[in-house]
Design brief:
Shape: globular
Number of helices: 9
Largest sheet: none
Strand content: under 5%
Structural class: mainly alpha
Order of helices and strands: HHHHHHHHH
């Protein structure tokens, strides 16, 4: 895939509009079809921006975080799902998964799992499955790397 498409999609991850961030994550997941493209996406700097999308919505607001987690808005839920889908698409490649582990993805995913597990209802169940699978994949890569 073209480098300009990867750069543009990565730039969308930095937008303030959740729709644009979601579109960037979707496009990157769509074009992450082989190991070379996955590594181009990592090299373009998409990983830190994808991991930022996993922060709880209270991290993005200036107000103090609520005592009990608020449900995600549909927009936040879709953006989070696309970020997880994109990270899962990248983690298919062993080389990209090693780069993700080196980039601190395991710790960020575990932090996301903590706040997502506190969400009420369907949002939690919808997001924890893919998140747990991604943590398991990266943890297995981390174990083989450290062996």
């Amino acid at each position: 895939m073209g480098d300009s498409l990867i750069r543009h999609s990565t730039a969308l991850l930095r937008a303030k509009d959740p729709f644009l961030r979601r579109a960037g994550a979707y496009r990157l997941a769509f074009i992450a079809s082989n190991d070379e493209t996955r590594m181009k996406i990592i090299d373009a700097g998409a990983l830190p921006h994808l991991l930022l999308l996993l922060d709880s919505p209270s991290h993005h607001s200036r107000a103090a975080p609520p005592l009990s987690p608020l449900p995600l808005s549909p927009s936040e839920n879709h953006t989070l799902k696309e970020a997880l889908n994109c990270l899962a698409s990248l983690a298919v490649s062993d080389t990209a998964a090693h780069a993700m582990v080196a980039g601190g993805a395991v710790a960020r995913l575990q932090q996301a799992a903590v706040w997502i597990s506190q969400l009420p209802g369907d949002h939690r169940d919808e997001l924890l499955g893919p998140l747990d699978a991604l943590v398991v994949r990266l943890a297995s890569v981390h174990r083989t790397r450290s062996s």
